[in-house]
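Let us practice reading a record.
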Amino acid sequence: MSSPIRRPKQEYHERTTRNMEQHLPTPTWDTRQKLALACRILAAEGHESALAGQITARGEKPGTYYMLRFGLGFDEASAENIILVDDDLNVLEGEGMPNPSNRFHLWIYRHRTHVNCIIHTHPPHISALSMTGEPLAVAHMDHAMFYDDCAYLPEWPGVPIGDEEGEIISAALGTKRSILLANHGQLVACGTVEEAAVMAVFIERAAKLQLLARAVGPIKAIRPELAREAHDYRLKPKAVGATFHYFARKILKSQAECLE
């Protein structure tokens, strides 16, 4: 009997990356369509909290931003009700009112030039965890994307419609992709709409697991070097895109009108 082939793990990482580039398709949705899909995905995942929560993305021109017009729930989002605003929330394209709470997003965009999409929501498990005084505990492979990549704001600064809240939240986020906001909710700030949507889905799932595990006993930490490896693996761009595409396919089976 021949011996099994053994290779360094790095070779398998490299092979996986090549195969993902070759075999995982990327749909040609525009920014408005991606935002609409992200909203519908988050609504389906339990992130709906009436009109609370926001989603934004950079526009093509500097200092412009796409966002869902105020007054709609995530489950009502469509490409046609995504508006374009300037750096002071004045409407440039579309009809309706910008969400006044989107002002604190602008502070993050100003300080994080590589961030192209921000999602802030109040889903139930993140909201419950935000009331405990505990940061997000990353101790499961599925949620390793948050390892050393989730900040924590321990004090609630109030309703985020002013510049002060923007400064506070932006400073607390720092260079990380995500943040748990005490007595409030979650925020993710990412390079693409796809990455932001996927991280928003999984941060709520991570909070749910944390609360379930804490009901049993203390949470056992995972080894840092393995957590960092899993973080990078989970955030491979093609894998993130394929995950977003999977969530989107589920939505489009019954809600294809959101792309119109």
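A brief commentary: The beta strands are 54-58, 65-68, 82-85, 91-93, 117-121, 150-153, 178-181, 185-190.
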